[in-house]
Design brief:
This protein has 164 residues and is an alpha/beta fold. Helix content is 60%, strand content 9%. It is built from nine helices and five strands; from the N terminus they run H-E-H-H-E-H-H-E-H-H-E-H-E-H. It has a five-stranded parallel β-sheet.
Length: 164
Amino acid sequence: MKYINQISKYYNKGIIFDTNILLLLLIGLYDPTLITKFKRVNKYNLRDFGILKDIYSNSNKVIISQPIVTELSNLSFNLSSKLLKSYFKSFCNELFKFKEINRDKNTILINPLFHKLGFTDCSIIEVAKKGKYLVITDDLELYLKLTFIGIPVENFNHLKTSLY
């Protein structure tokens, strides 16, 4: 429960879910049975989704940036074409609730980690750094970089392990 206490401090301040974690949330909210079937999130299970859904439902401020939305949208097109219209309706309904914060592309491009992490992860770093938001990720490299530079971060894999 140590992790939940650490996360709860950010329920009102702001939480950024990394793209893979957010995709799990959106797929699970749309149809939890797709979690084990959709290749982009099938490394997760219903218990993982339950943890994430609990965090999400307690959060009053979820932060998103345009690069995250772009990546989410692109990854979502791996769903069956017959599901896309209804999935994207659910997708949009959830994303409308989020607070969008963006950083100037030049700020992202000159981030010294750009060549290692890419545009989306550097946008997460820049947004989190500016607002002191918590990032939840399962990307080890992003987790380590965020930890090193002092940005609040939780590794979803550590969180799952502590709660199982």
